[in-house]
Amino acid sequence: MAVTVVSGGLSVSEGVSETLEDVPPHVWKGLPDDMRLRRSAVNPNRIGVWAAQALPRGKRFGPFMGDKKKRSQVTSNVYMWEVYFPARGWMCVDATDPLKGNWLRYVNWARSAQEQNLFPLEINRAIYYKVLRPIGPGQELLVWYNGEDNPEIAAALEEERASSLSKKNSPRAKRARKKLLERERLAAVGLRGLKSTGPDRLRDRDMRESEEGVCETCVSLKA
Ligand SMILES: C[S@+](CC[C@H](N)C(=O)[O-])C[C@H]1O[C@@H](n2cnc3c(N)ncnc32)[C@H](O)[C@@H]1O
């Protein structure tokens, strides 16, 4: 693989063959046990991700890691996802530099809806890949989006929404919400003589995180 230095990082030149030797150690380390990296069948210049075991429909992987950049800073869209942040607008998670990405960077684009077996979804402004139809051992993982007009994807997104909603209404989420509200109420009326200590603050943060995690599942990608 030929590499060009881009703002201190490595960038794969398009059209140049990537080899297994180019895969950084952290990617090998993070690769799940049931996955293999080897030459892609859909793009001979690329490495692809292959299932070593059956992967059931609905299994989710991620998040897709990369450099967070503005669109204007991205030089190639092959390894980037755009995500909308209400306060900042569209931002990109760019894994062009292999050192910045994780193993999901090596999942290639399906050439047709028929060979697509993963679809991307956005949860709390991070991109995950979810298994659209069961993947057998020895099959290459291939992602594609074609929006909610595909009935299979529409059904999978609906399932994701329903599961997020049921997590939001789970006893655990309700307890966390109740505790957080109580804490905030006490703080507001000045009944807490002491300032939050480190662990206290961490607990508050944990509650907020679990709130965000269960409350806000967004599955919108640009059509
Ligand atoms: C990371 S994905 C492709 C993955 C695969 N590794 C590949 O190289 O073929 C990049 C593609 O998704 C498109 N894309 C990025 N953000 C998107 C979004 N929010 N909605 C829909 N498509 C998006 C990009 O334009 C680009 O074509």
From TrEMBL:
Classification lineage: Eukaryota, Metazoa, Chordata, Craniata, Vertebrata
Species annotation: Clupea harengus
InterPro entries registered for this protein in UniProt: PRDM2_PR-SET (IPR044414), SET_dom (IPR001214)
Every SET domain range: 33-146
Protein name: PR domain zinc finger protein 2-like
Alphabetized CDD domains for the sequence: PR-SET_PRDM2
Name of a matching Pfam family: PRDM2_PR
GO molecular function, one term: histone methyltransferase activity
Superkingdom in the source lineage: Eukaryota
